[in-house]
Specification:
Two copies of one chain form a homodimer. Chain A is α+β, with helices and mostly antiparallel strands. Chain A contains three helices and ten strands; from the N terminus they run βββββββαβββαα. In chain A, a hairpin with a 5-residue loop joins strand 2 and strand 3. The model of chain A has no long low-confidence stretch (mean pLDDT 94).
């Protein structure tokens, strides 16, 4: 699974780091880790392991009754059930908006008539290249989910936006991007009302 | 760096996944990747690579003039300069609050008289175990930073909370946890005023 030599990506012109060598340290179908030999900003030799899961999308599906649709699933990483905004990987070359529409349909069966971008933000930029594109999806129509086999136990839940926003910060499985997405959606709605 | 056999962590009693084997796929001083052989929720065999960088802390340092202190540094992962809330790893066994006090001092030279927890949230729970503990730090006293060698080029910046909150979502290097932290701090301040 590893040992291939990826090309050394060029250092940005304004980078205080210098990259000397690169090796693919790990790869599975969902993420890779590249280990770079570097000269650090203080000039000393070091290494930097960069995790690359690719970018993803996060959708805030809000219906006409101000209810949010979230997905509930078991998170293998943290060995807990939790609820989250629908999210999923952007396929190579795929437009983020099309990825968001596809993922919303796959995970929840929902289609949305109106899509508004909320933010594009890095999730853990100290270690990972991953960026999430957040969208507010409105004008919802229900249909059947088309879930991945890994999502066989996923279900959807509907709850008031205000309640979801408050709960998203207090939950034992709170996720930064879910909490941020619900807050940005809340603020967007408030701004439209005012 | 790899090939050690970590113990199979026990599956949670309510997990729809079954773990069959585990191997350490990658490790550096800052993170590890464990690859698990699993039976997925649909019963089919598969694998799951779990990234474990350890938990971290994120601090919102707010001074008496409603100015936020942020750090500016080059992000090797995304090859860009950006500004962020001070953040850093929790040492093994370290209390999150003590880690936050230590990291704030190291990165900015600031000490804070008042600490309020804002949220504890997972940063990328589809692939990583990492959780960040967010704190609002007030009653600031300035001093000298004690930065790591990798942070040799880090500087601090001071800006109004309202401006930082808006800018954190629009920046080309927007970070979910920085945007969330600034918003939670903003809401906490508003709630105290009302």
């Amino acid at each position: 699974m590893s040992g291939q030599q990826p090309p050394i990506r060029p250092d940005a012109a304004d980078s205080p780091w210098r990259t000397l060598a690169a090796r693919e340290a790990y790869r599975n179908p969902w993420l890779s880790v590249t280990e770079y030999q570097v000269l650090r900003p203080d000039g000393a030799p070091g290494l930097y392991g960069v995790v690359d899961p690719g970018d993803n999308v996060t959708i805030v599906p809000l219906d006409d009754e101000q209810q949010i649709w979230v997905v509930e699933d078991f998170l293998y990483t943290i060995q807990r059930w939790g609820w989250f905004l629908p999210t999923g990987a952007i396929n190579p070359g795929e437009d983020p908006l099309l990825a968001a529409q596809r993922e919303l349909l796959e995970e929840t069966g929902l289609r949305a008539a109106r899509w508004d971008p909320l933010c594009a933000c890095y999730l853990s930029p100290g270690i990972s290249t991953q960026r999430s594109y957040l969208y507010l999806a409105r004008g919802l129509t229900e249909g059947d989910p088309q879930r991945d086999p890994t999502e066989a136990r996923m279900t959807t839940r509907r709850m008031p936006l205000a309640e979801a926003r408050a709960a998203s910060r207090l939950s034992e499985t709170a996720s930064a991007v879910t909490a941020l997405g619900l807050t940005l959606a809340w603020e967007a709605i408030q701004a439209e009302v005012e």
